[in-house]
């Protein structure tokens, strides 16, 4: 299993923690965890005990939110 530091280097992708995603959306980390529980929000992956969110997934979620608000 890859450690967090090794994972952040794989494929030159950047990963955000739950706290970083929460800060980006100005909400609590518990809300991001709830989103994950109900299948809403950016898609994350478990790495050991942590959940990390690929930056691409977070950006895709932002585009989805923007599109929903525009319609």
UniProtKB/TrEMBL annotation:
Annotated organism of origin: Streptomyces daliensis
UniProt xrefs under InterPro entries: DNA-bd_dom_put_sf, HTH_17
Designated name of the protein: Helix-turn-helix domain-containing protein
Domain Helix-turn-helix: 15-63
Pfam families assigned: HTH_17
């Amino acid at each position: 299993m890859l450690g967090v530091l090794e994972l952040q280097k794989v494929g030159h992708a950047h990963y955000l923690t739950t706290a970083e995603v929460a800060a980006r959306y100005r909400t609590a980390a518990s809300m991001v965890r709830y989103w994950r529980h109900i299948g809403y929000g950016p898609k994350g992956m478990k790495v050991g005990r942590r959940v990390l969110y690929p930056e691409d997934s977070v950006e895709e979620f932002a585009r989805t939110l923007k599109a929903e608000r525009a319609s």
